[in-house]
Amino acid sequence: MRELEPGARPGPAAPVPEPAPDHAPRWLWRAQIGRRLLVWILVASSLVTLLLTSLQLYLDYRRDVDGIEARLAEIEHGYLPSLAGSLWKLDREQLQLQIEGITRLPDILGAEVQGAQGALTVQSGRIETQAVYLRTVPISYEDRGERRLLGELRVAATLEGVYQRLTERALIILASQGIKTFLVSFFILFIVHQVVTRHLGGLARYFADFDIRAPAGPPKLARTPREVPDELDHLVHAFASLQTRLEHAYADLSIANRDLQTDIAARREAEAEINRLNLELEQRVEERTAELESANRELAAFTYSVSHDLRAPLRAVHGFSHLLDRELEQGLSAQGKHYLERIRNGVERMGSLIDDLLRLSQISQRAMNPAHVDLSALGALVAQELQASDPVRQVTWSIAPGMQAWGDQGLLRIVLENLLGNAWKYTGKRDHARIELGCDATGERPAFFIRDNGVGFDMQYGERLFEAFQRLHHVEEFPGTGIGLATVARIIHRHGGRIWATALVGEGASFFFTLGERDRSGNAE
Question: Using CB atoms within 10 A of its CB, is residue 135 exposed (0-12), middle (13-18) or buried (19+)?
Fold first, then answer.
């Protein structure tokens, strides 16, 4: 092998190569591309190994999990008849033997049989709520043609054994694949250096000294010429051709450089103009934002002032009507007392309207404190309060357990108070009223709903429901101000959700609402 012969030429001195450490082969120290290739091979092989290992582990995991589910199904179908017979006879000893037989099955953490109304309880192992699988199966027994519910069987299964087996498999696969990958990569590194990278290093040293203003002879490879040129020979030939073209292009480059400087100056002027327009736009946005905030403050002050100014004459009308009724109690006719009663009712309704308007205005300005909210517990609390307001009414409540949401608890309580309150009000004429609070999780976002069997409404007027002061029933029939559903809609919109309703006249109504998803800052979006 002969070294690269770049030829004598003027130009800058070639950089001194960094000395190789004594403990490493010189070719390995200089094989920069080879080392990067080694890293990429290791990374790619590791990723492929991890991917295939993950796939294998996932398949093993699914097989083990399917085995656990099949085992639970086998327990349900295989042990249930004998358990029912033993529980019917109250044979604790036989039940204990059967339960212990279940817990000896693989991956079964514990089992428990509990009789109806706590008549008998037999347990083996541990029944934990944090178990991966907890299956509860009712136990029934047919006696004289009648099916009787005797109790329930609870079986808890764990994945600890599955995880342990998967860990052992993963360690074995990763260790064997890692050793194989490293040996193959090191061998590839050596081959790449011998065939490619040492010649590329010579070409790099040649072009480090290359000066277009003082051209030199073409580069040569540090090896004997081949009868059939390979890629490196083609590369050297391309470099020689490129060197010739560069010499011819050098003159044109100076002219193009002057044109480029002109274009750069124009571009800088355009960028400066864009920056100026951006600053102007930001200033306008800040001004509009300040105007909007000022308008909101003025609106809040106006709302508070109006509500305050309206309350004084209302209190006067209410008070004087009471004085008039008391002083002229004997002289007033029944028609006059009726007129006074209507005046007081109107004053009270006006006061309620003012309160609802003020509450509606405050909803948009109230700061939100988002957190996890237990809608089931919140709905049960509102239902208890409604039932306590009229204990005589017979209402069947159905509140789904475990409904969780992310939002402001105070605002969501207002939502449930209004929606459940409407269901309570519009089922008031039913002998057997039903009110349900549940969740439909089949869509993109869970939809919570309140359903009743009240008077319902005509769907052609459904769009007016969530507008202020819009009512679909007469005040004399069902009291109200028409602000509640508008308040609910505003709260739902602040949570990034939407609300809608369906109904049939005389068959009840259903109100649905969704809430926005939690973003990184903890707010609903």
Answer: middle
Chain-centroid distance, C-alpha 136 = 30
The pLDDT score that the predictor gives to residue 26 is: 54
251-365: which CATH number, 3.30.540.10, 1.10.287.130, 3.20.20.80, 3.40.50.1100? 1.10.287.130
* CB-based burial, 44-53: b 16+ in 10 Å, e otherwise: ebeeebeeeb
Using DSSP, how many helices (H) and how many strands (E) does the chain show? 10, 11
- Two tokens, residue 467: 């507008």
pLDDT at residue 477, rounded to an integer: 58
The pLDDT assigned to 21 comes to 46
Phi, psi of 134 (to 5 degrees): -130, 110
pLDDT of residue 160: 80
pLDDT reported for residue 229: 75
Radius of gyration in angstroms for the set of CA atoms belonging to the chain, rounded to a whole number: 42
- Per the CB < 8 A criterion, the answer to whether 118 and 87 are in contact is no
CA distance 261 to 274: 20
**Alpha helix positions (H), 369-512:** 375-389, 409-426, 484-494
What pLDDT does residue 513 have? 93
Instruction: Name the residue among 221, 231, 229 with its Cα closest to residue 201.
Output: 221
Residues carrying CATH 3.30.565.10, the chain: 369-513
List phi, psi (to 5°) of 162: -60, -45
Secondary structure (3-state) at 5: coil
> Which CATH number applies to 369-513?
3.30.565.10
Q: Is 522 left (phi over 0), alpha (psi -120 to 50) or beta?
A: left
Collapsed DSSP state (helix, strand, coil) of residue 477: coil
Residue ranges of the chain with pLDDT lower than 50?
1-24, 27, 519-523
CA distances from 418 to 319, 446, 478 (A): 30, 20, 14
Q: Report the residue count for the chain.
A: 525
CA 27 from chain centre, in angstroms, equals 53
Q: Which residues contact 30 (CB under 8 A, 6 or more apart)?
A: 17, 20, 197, 198, 201
**Which residues belong to CATH 1.10.287.130 in the chain?**
251-365
Digit-coded pLDDT (tens) for 230-264: 777 777 778 777 777 777 777 677 777 878 888 88
Query: What local confidence, expressed as pLDDT, does residue 413 receive?
Result: 87
pLDDT at 448: 94
Interior CA angle at 207 toward 205 and 211, to 5°? 130
Rounded Cα distance, 209 and 127, in Å? 79
- 441: which residues sit within 8 A by CB, 6+ positions away? 447
Burial 219-255 (b: 16+ CB within 10 A, else e): bbbeeeeeeeeeebeebbeeeeeebeeeeeeeeeeee
Dihedral pair phi/psi, residue 233, rounded to 5°? -65, -45
DSSP state of 524: B
In whole angstroms, give the CA distance from residue 461 to residue 438: 25
Tokens of residue 235, six digits = 């590369």
Nearest to 518 by CA among 375, 408, 364: 408
pTM of the model: 0.40
